[in-house]
Specification:
Length: 180
């Protein structure tokens, strides 16, 4: 978190609904008192909304907060999501059978553009900022991070959140070990 001068962060604060495979939503739909809605399918990643520093202070993430790459890899694709854009970084040195690890950053504004092909990024390099939340959406600004195994022969440009959640060839895994 050196990009945001947050070197003294002790840990992420993850409420129920923010972790990998959680069934509940953590945000409140507009005009409701409590977040009692269930997700249509288990959560595919981790939502980062608040951090805690070494002194115990809670620090919310903010729109335009700088997002570093978790691992070195190649930025290969991005598409719109309901809060901004989702970008995919392929990690060709991390394989499982015929699948390649990809880290996915959701609800962001890419800081890098794709021109003629993949763009190499290094661990810690700025790849995006957190999107501003549209006025009509009840979900607060946050960073969604997923880690997935994507089959080598799967065209990443064909993927969307809906397609990935509908039994495609991708396999979601818990991103927390990569974040810690």
């Amino acid at each position: 978190m050196q990009l945001n001068n947050l070197e003294a962060i002790s840990h992420l604060l993850l409420r129920p609904g923010m972790r990998f495979q959680d069934a509940a939503q953590w945000w409140r739909p507009k005009n409701q008192q409590a977040p009692n809605n269930l997700r249509p399918h288990p959560h595919e990643g981790v939502d980062i909304y608040q951090l805690q520093n070494m002194d115990g202070a809670i620090i919310p993430v903010w729109p335009n907060m700088l997002i570093p790459a978790i691992l070195t890899g190649d930025l290969v694709y991005f598409h719109r999501d309901f809060l901004g854009e989702t970008l995919y970084i392929r990690h060709p040195d991390r394989r499982q059978g015929q699948a390649v690890l990809h880290t996915i950053y959701g609800h962001v504004c890419p800081a890098i553009t794709l021109r003629t092909g993949p763009c190499r990024v290094k661990k810690g390099q700025l790849v995006a900022t957190i999107s501003n939340t549209p006025e009509a959406v009840s979900v607060p600004a946050h960073l969604h991070i997923s880690c997935v195994w994507i089959a080598e022969d799967q065209a990443v440009a064909e993927l969307t959140w809906k397609k990935m959640g509908a039994g495609s060839t991708v396999v979601f895994i818990d991103p927390l070990p990569f974040l810690l």
